[in-house]
Amino acid sequence: MKKGTTKTSPRLEDVARKAGVSISTASKALHDNPRVSEQTRNLVHRIAEELSYTPNAMAQSLVTGMSGTIGLVTSDMQGRFCTQILMGAENVCSAQSISVLLANARNDPTFEAMHIQKLLSLNVDGLIMMGRETDPRPSLGQNLAVPVVYAYAPSEDPSDASITCDNTGAGRLAINHLISCGRRHIAIIGGDESFAAATDRAEGALNALADAGLKLAGPLRYGTWHGDWGRGATRLLLDQNIQFDAIVCQNDQIARGCIDVLKERGIRVPDDVAVIGHDNWFEIVTLSRPELTSIDNLATDIGSQAANMLLDAIQGYPHHGVKSLPCKLVQRESTICLE
């Protein structure tokens, strides 16, 4: 190379020209967009490698109108599901070289609005709005410059795209599992009745009992989501001489408290009473003695499907309505079949 000259870095236009495709198609191929044929994607990747082409984010944004980033605004940074939903979204986005920018709204509408505006100023291609519970939340409306998907907490507007877990199905799943284990006198310890998760899980459980021709053992009591409530509610069941051979606890913390009291009273779990929780909180279910059977919300799947829905919308194929993902039962030692 002559002194004073500089080597020009290959550009996206060079890759597109050599591949015989448009610049837009080349960009999509390099991001492994499934709407570009596998043959074209492979061709563009091969040529990019031959030319030692490295994408320039700013240049690509100017050419395609896309920044290659999405925003995820969460109200659950300290909660159980934020990390799992974020991981699910990142698994999908990273496969297409898209970055996820995380913002913590702290369950505060003012913080949420501030973060949305900041993310929009960074030219994100879309937003995932994640709530801390499954109660419907207000819609951001239809006038944002980018598409939005609501994860875990669905939008109140049926024209929006939302994805959450099927809590009603989870309640039914818990009861049917216990029935399959030979249990017929099943009690329920509810969480906070002001949460849709508590009432939805109870609805599913009660319907499953009715379908099986069974009645609930004792009254359905709601309380809090904490272990102290699990202990108190279990003492009430025992002190009132209610006959039961299984207890559905609406989260794992309640179940931990429940098992503590049963063991204090000399009641064997699962031999005398089977116990099932909800959330599949690893630190609780695996340290419980016996290890706790629990319902998993599959939050990682919620995150990955939310990301797929958002990427579809970015490509011009929006989803509408609420999609409810089935939960999964993870059986451990606290529920066994009676002989």
TrEMBL record:
CDD domains: HTH_LacI, PBP1_sucrose_transcription_regulator. Keywords: DNA-binding, Transcription, Transcription regulation. One of its GO terms (molecular function) is DNA-binding transcription factor activity. Gene3D superfamilies: 3.40.50.2300, lambda repressor-like DNA-binding domains. It holds the Pfam family LacI. This is Catabolite control protein A. Coiled coil: none annotated. The keyword DNA-binding applies. Residues 10-64 form the HTH lacI-type domain. The gene is ccpA_1.
